[in-house]
Write a structure and sequence with these properties.
By secondary structure, this protein is α+β, with helices and mostly antiparallel strands. The chain has two domains: 96 residues, no CATH class; 82 residues, no CATH class. Helices cover 34% and strands 30% of the residues. The strands form seven sheets. Strands 1-2 form a two-stranded antiparallel ribbon. It has a two-stranded antiparallel sheet with strand order 3-14. A two-stranded antiparallel sheet has the order 4-13. α1 packs across α5 and α1 runs antiparallel to α6. It is elongated and about 85 Å long. The chain starts with a helix and ends with a helix. The mean pLDDT is 84.
Length: 189
């Protein structure tokens, strides 16, 4: 086989591999069959494919995509956290009350700042973070005011393995995609 024919075969095989990658990505995007999880659509929108010199790269860029895919074990906070709280105003039934600056210590707990993105309802925030949000927050606008929550643990999350399942399903068609790409060049050598 001549060098030019070898290059043609390699190019064809790479094209078949890319076709299979596109197929796997399309499967992973299917919500009706339970692949990518869709709450707000951010994870699904973060999916990408990128052609490489010798293949294709596909994945999800959302910062929480690995937790959705593989899950997360429960985590309990240990130690203490000292939090300096600035002077602030609170509204009570009796009226407005000014609270002086002070320090609060959380033992085996953490004060966690949640900065909600998009237009999330209280229920969506609670479902996303797996916890109850105290206070009377009903709706938070895009990059709204941060919410502070005291947590003693981060709850466990089961992995959904949406991407792994798409790969296992799509890879079965790899021989067909290779045959398709090789058939395009016809008989070589």
């Amino acid at each position: 086989m001549k060098a030019s024919q070898k290059r043609l075969v390699v190019k064809s095989l790479i094209e078949g591999l890319r076709r299979n990658g596109d197929r796997i990505f399309a499967i992973s995007q299917e919500t009706s069959r339970g692949f990518v999880a869709v709450d707000r659509g951010i994870l699904r929108q973060s999916g990408y494919t990128r052609k490489l010199r010798n293949g294709i790269e596909l994945g999800y860029k959302a910062p929480y995509s690995a937790r959705v895919e593989f899950g997360q074990p429960e985590f309990h906070y240990t130690g203490s956290q000292n939090v300096k709280i600035k002077k602030h105003v609170i509204h009570t039934k009796e009226g407005v009350k000014t609270i002086k600056a002070h320090t609060r210590t959380y033992v085996n707990k953490r004060l966690v700042r949640i900065r909600p993105h998009q237009d999330w309802s209280r229920g969506e925030i609670e479902a996303s973070y797996g916890m109850r949000i105290p206070g009377n927050v009903t709706n938070v606008k895009i990059y709204g005011a941060p919410i502070f929550v005291v947590m003693s643990r981060i709850p466990a999350r089961q992995g959904q393995f949406f991407f792994s399942r798409a790969i296992f399903e799509g890879i079965k068609k790899l021989p067909d995609d290779m045959k398709w790409s090789l058939a395009k060049i016809g008989k070589v050598g």
